[in-house]
Specification:
The protein has one domain. Helix 1 packs antiparallel against helix 3 and helix 3 (47-71) runs antiparallel to helix 4 (77-100). The chain has 4 helices and no strands. 12% of the residues are buried. It is mainly alpha-helical.
Length: 106
């Protein structure tokens, strides 16, 4: 097992742990931008829903990282095209959902 693969598995386990915490609706302090926002900006968001959206997206990214670690250097051709767009698509979906469905009802 190479050092790169060990790092991939370590990051995968870390991402999995963080995504589990976020899926339970806890750990809003882990979300960049939300933890540094002022109290009035935080009041505009449903924190539990925001945690679940970010946790769900992070879970998808964790699966991508695990597949990348499993295949290591023998990544199939189809996956070599799917992974970059999957990462970018998931990050875009998290950003869009966080700024639309996570707003608190006023």
């Amino acid at each position: 097992m190479s050092l790169v693969n060990v790092v991939f598995w370590g990051a995968t386990v870390l991402f999995a742990a963080i995504s589990i915490v976020l899926l339970f609706g806890k750990g809003s302090f882990l979300i960049a931008g939300y933890n540094t926002a002022s109290a009035e900006k935080k009041a505009k968001f449903n924190a539990k829903r925001l945690c679940r959206v970010v946790g769900g997206g992070l879970s998808v990214l964790t699966v991508f990282m695990a597949l990348n670690a499993i295949y290591e250097a023998e990544l199939p051709y189809a996956l070599s095209w799917i992974f970059p767009y999957g990462y970018l698509g998931t990050i875009a979906a998290i950003a869009i959902l966080a700024n639309t469905i996570c707003h608190a009802k006023t």
